[in-house]
Design brief:
Blueprint lengths: L2 H17 L9 H14 L4 H9 L6 H12 L5 E10 L8 H4 L5 E4 L3 H15 L15 E14 L5 E7 L5 E10 L5 E4 L2 E7 L5 E7 L3 H9 L6 E2 H4 L5 E3 L2 E2 L10 E6 L1 E8 L30 E14 L3 E14 L18 E6 L6 E7 L2 H4 L5
Parallel strand pairs: 1-2
Antiparallel strand pairs: 1-3, 3-15, 4-5, 5-12, 6-7, 6-9, 7-8, 10-11, 13-14, 14-15, 16-17
Helix pairs in contact: 1-7, 2-3, 2-4
Length: about 375
């Protein structure tokens, strides 16, 4: 697999995660990168340069490298990847379309949601093995082209965990499905300065890395992923005392040789991302603007096209016997004049005492009027 592409996906993933607020989240830079790379090849300036910079790829090579990446991923034992393109029956294609938007199968869009959406959802379900069942895209007559990627990962631990219900206090207060296992692979734990990285090996070709520390933990973990032999291995840490790395204490075992006990909660996290809310981060600013009759993708069609939707659905589950994840990322092109604008709005929340009245429209005659002193009590359904 192209090392430059791996680095670009790694950088995109880290940049994306660091841009998000606090709280549980999951993203797939791997699912997004091929779409950005293809768009870089397909776009006119200035969007071409913006997309190429976001994907860290030469624009002329983006489409080719994206297809190569999808093909390489699909050769994995545990990972399935797919790329799809659907084009409106009403869209006139440029002669260069097949060169800039290559895809194994190009489907057609009728512009009717009742016809198109089930087809796109079925593709999503098939290529995520049912983990995600709906493609995150709104279909209407203005949608001229949909470009999508799908990823599905299922791996089984080489050494499974035991599971128990554990009651925790503080920030983790509540009952958790807690996972624990013990083995002798000391070097599955490594310290990279102020970061601890634990490798949980799958039984095929996927491992899951867990990072614990301070500062930019995600960035550090992604950096460590590319340097698996660096850092201080557990076989050296075992010679210390006390806390020898973040979250790693020296304890005692009844085993005949040193071992590692790993404890953590099982977890499931899913996220929906509207990529246009961070258009600049992904190089989408120019290609989402309305340039009038010119459009942004003349290599795709002489019609004035712009990106009107860009979304990702992604989930990840870590449990006693394995790990699974899926992501579907979509870009929808609309006629440039129809691009959805994200304007400011007023959010009004009546979560404090308020009055109400019903009046006749013309005479303003009040019919009923009242006062809600406790909105939460008023909101209860009457028996």
């Amino acid at each position: 697999m192209d090392a430059d592409v791996v680095g670009a996906v790694n950088e995109l993933t880290g940049r994306w995660v660091r841009s998000l607020g606090p709280g549980n989240t999951v993203v797939s830079g791997l699912g997004l990168w091929p779409l950005l790379a293809i768009l870089a090849t397909a776009a006119d300036e200035p969007g071409r340069a913006e997309l190429a910079a976001a994907a860290q790829v030469a624009a002329a090579d983006g489409s080719r490298l994206a297809v190569q990446l999808i093909d390489a991923l699909d050769e994995s034992a545990d990972l399935h990847a797919a790329l799809g393109v659907w084009v409106s029956e009403q869209l006139k294609l440029a002669e260069s379309f097949g060169e800039v938007v290559p895809a194994p199968v190009v489907g057609m869009l009728t512009g009717q949601s009742a016809v198109d959406k089930p087809k796109l959802d079925a593709w999503t379900t098939e290529h995520t093995d049912g983990l995600i069942r709906e493609m995150p895209v709104v279909i209407d007559p203005d949608v001229m082209l949909v470009l999508a990627s799908a990823l599905c990962l299922r791996t089984t631990w080489a050494r499974p965990f035991t599971e128990q219900i554990k009651r925790l206090q503080g920030d983790w207060a509540g009952s958790w499905h807690w996972l624990e296992r013990t083995d002798h692979d000391l070097d599955s734990v490594r310290r990279y300065d102020d970061l601890t990285v634990i490798t949980v090996r799958g039984d095929a070709d996927v491992d899951v890395l867990l990072g614990l520390g301070s500062g930019d933990v995600v960035g550090g973990l992604l950096d460590a992923a590319g340097r698996p032999a660096d850092g201080v291995p557990g076989s050296a840490l075992i010679e210390g005392s006390g806390e020898v790395a973040p979250g790693v204490q020296i304890g005692k075992t009844t085993s005949a040789r040193p071992d590692v006990r790993l404890s953590l909660p099982s977890f499931q996290v899913s996220s929906s991302h509207d990529l246009l809310e961070s258009a600049e981060l992904f190089g989408l600013s120019a290609v989402t603007s309305n340039p009038g009759e010119r459009g942004h993708f003349s290599a795709i069609s002489p019609a004035p096209l712009a990106i009107g939707q860009a979304k990702q659905e992604v989930l990840a589950r870590f449990f006693a016997t394995g790990f699974e994840a899926a992501a579907v990322t979509t870009m929808a092109m609309t006629r440039a004049a129809m691009v959805t604008r994200h304007e400011r709005r007023l959010d009004v929340v009546l979560d404090r005492p308020f009055a109400f009245a019903a009046v006749l429209r013309e005479s303003r005659l009040p019919i009923v009027a009242g006062w809600i002193n406790s909105p939460t009590e008023a909101g209860r359904t009457a028996d």
